[in-house]
Structure formats: structure tokens, C-alpha cells
Amino acid sequence: MTLAKRSRTTAGYRHLAFGFGALTAVVLGAIVYVAFARARITITLAVRDVQTTFDVSVSETAATERALAGQYLTRTVSGTTTVVASGQHAVPAKAAGTVRITNTTSSPQPLAATTRLLSESGVLFRTLTRVDVPAKGSLEVSVEADEAGPTGEIGPQRFTIPGLRAANQQLIDGESFAAMTGGTVASGAVTPEDLTAAQTTLTTDLRSQAQAELQNLVEAGATVVVVNEQTHDLSTSQPDQVARELTLHALVYQPADLNVLIADELKASAPAGDHLVALGNAQPLIKLVSADAEEKTAIVSITANGQSTLDPSNPVIATTQLTNKTPAELERYGQTTNGIAAIAVSLSPFWSRRTPSQPARIDRVLELEVALDS
Asked: What does the alpha-carbon distance between residue 357 and residue 323 come to, in Å, rounded to a whole number?
């Protein structure tokens, strides 16, 4: 064999060995990729609000599926309160004061209560008590105007006693040394606002009383929810008082029993493929539909809120939907799929460009978009 021919043969073997080595490297790379390729896919689930409204019967023994073991109770209380007047206005009154009666005769002069004293300005007053004016002496007597109003507020002046004989009127008379006062007085005026304030305060007090009495009627741990309130005014004998009667209609139940019913209804109202993840933290709205006070039963309408997300078993987030996709493809998938807020992808080894084709090599992590109501 010539040297040239031997060189060509050696080169051919060398190319063959190189090709076989390259193929081996590719096969080994594929084996390594298949053996070690993994993906961690974090799916942020959108939290969706769910609301339901349904009727439920309430009785001591829940006989149907939409029934709540409990009681329907009523409590009636009544009371009165005084209206506090905030306004002020002038009210006519009888002016009053003191008059000194002087007797210049030699005999005592008795004066009965309500004896008339006429001022020199023409305003009539009357004594308040019986007095005996001593002979050649004097005494002071309390008087008040015969008519109410500011006309009785006169200054110091002299008085005659019209009831005496004309001759004695010059010998027995009176005189005041200070002004008469009190012809008008300030009085509280009840305004419509005062009346409303009194009624509101009374209603609040009666409501608290009725709620306390209802709570005393039920066992510990039971919830008392007022579903209706009725009030009507009562008549009173005092003009400055208001009276009112209040009746509370209440539903008594165990919270856990109601929550079971609410959860079932919310599950039925959630979007298809969702599961309920939380009940609303607000108290359900309960309205009275009908009631039988004697039987202690009622039908009430309940409105409640909750939150749902895609169920973990929902096919749209199954790992079979996540295989052999680039991070960009998965991101677009999350943006266009109802119930998914976002998708984040982490691939290994670092040179990987797609998620594994085997679902078993995908670690799926589910997170919630927002904090749930507690």
C-alpha cells in the first residue's frame, strides 16, 4: 500500500471517529436533558367574589335541606322619656313685689288675702296673705299683679285700697319702694328637633333592652339576629313626655349551622370549575320573609358573600397543559385563560428553553392573587 493511500484511509477513520463522538455527545446530551430537565411553574390564581341569595326556613327542627335549626322569637318593650327643651321664649307671668301698708287710724285694719291694691299708674295688685295692719302702724305685705304680663312691672309708687270705705282710703294706704318684677319669665320651648331627639334616644334604649331580654332567652353560643323592628307611639298624660312601644323580631341560630348552608349555596353559585376558598368576613344579610310567632318558625332571605378560585383539579391548570412550552407561551396562556392572574416559569438546566414534555417533571405551585377574607 502506498503512502498516499494509507493517509487517505487514516483520514477516513478519523472522520468516522469524530462523527461517532459527536453523535455520542448528542445522545448523551439528550439523555442528560431528559434525565435532569425540570420546570417550576407558579400559577397565581385570580380570587373571584361570589354572592348568593336564598330563602331558608327556620324551625326548632330542620326538616329539609334548606332549613336551619333555630327559633323565631319576638320581644315587646315600652317606656317613656322626658323631652328636654332646647329653645327659650318669654311667657307672661304675674309681676310681684312688696308694698308697705300704713294705718293712721286708731283701730287695727284687717286685710283679707287677695285684697286689691291699686297703683297710682292704674295697675291692680292683690295681697297674697291675710294681714292685720296695727293701729297707727305699718307692715309689709307681698303682692302680685292681678293680670299677667309686663304691664305689672311698675316702679315704686303709692297704692290705694279700693275695698275700704272712701273715708278710710285716705287714712290707710300703701307704698312700694322697689320695682315690681316677674311680668315675663323665660320658658323652655320644645322644638320638633327636641321631640325627634327624645324619640330617637328612647328607641335606642328600648332596642337595647329588648335585645338583652332576647339574649337571656337563648342558650350560650347562639346568635341572635334582629330581622325586623316595629315601633309605635303611645299616649301620655304629661305634655313634656313621649312614650313608645318597640317590638323586635329575631332569628336565633348556631353560626356553624348557617355557615354550612351558606357554603353550599356559594359553591353552587361559583363559576364552573371553581371551588370555594373563603366565606365573606361580613355578617350575612338576613331579611324576614314570613313568620309564625306562635310556632316560632320563619322563612328568611339570606344574602352572603364568599370567594372562589380555580379548583386545583381544573383541567386548564393541569400539568398536561403546561408541557413543552416556552415561558413566553405560558405567560400568554395565563393572560388569556379566565381564572389565572399570572404564570411564572423557572427552567433547569439553565440552557433549557421549553418546559419538559413529561408532566411528572413539572412542579406546579398554586398561589392566590390577594389575601383572602378571614
From this structure: 5
